[in-house]
Amino acid sequence: MEPRSVSAPLAAALVVLGLVLAAGPALVAGFSICGVSGCTGGGFGRATDPDLTRVLLLATGVVAGLPLAIYALVRRSGRLAAYALALAVLATLLTGLVIGSDLRGCPRNVPDETCLEESG
């Protein structure tokens, strides 16, 4: 039996779909890292939530890679599955970089002690 070919346009569309859907958890992660007032602490003050930020960053990666991962499962393609995993990791890391998070879910410009004190 001949293996089925993978549709490149469909795979590209699934990558775009995953990235568009991942914008939701990425946006919420941006708010959860410092609160509505931002990391400067103006307005209502800074309210960090490192645990929620980490969960939302992981959710961003999962959502970004899920459409391509499902397609990889249907096509039984290990290569597509590896691409989906790489997309998930890249989306997580880039979202963390864009929102200013370190690996612990705290803002990079806030000392760790302060971040943990503010995380109520």
Question: In percent terms, what proportion of residues is strand?
Answer: under 5%
* Rg over alpha carbons: 18 Å
Our count of helices gives 4
Structural class: mainly alpha
Give the low-pLDDT segments. none
Keywords: Membrane, Transmembrane, Transmembrane helix
Transmembrane segments: 54-73, 80-99
Molecular structure report:
With 120 residues, this protein is mainly alpha-helical. It has one domain. The protein contains 4 helices and no strands. α1 runs antiparallel to α2 and α1 packs parallel to α3. The radius of gyration is 18 Å and the shape is elongated. The model has no long low-confidence stretch (mean pLDDT 84).
Secondary-structure topology with pairs:
Elements lengths: L7 H27 L15 H26 L2 H22 L12 H7 L2
Helix pairs in contact: 1-2, 1-3, 2-3
Care to give the gist of this entry?
This protein is an all-alpha fold. It has helices at 8-34, 50-75, 78-99, 112-118. It is elongated and about 55 Å long.
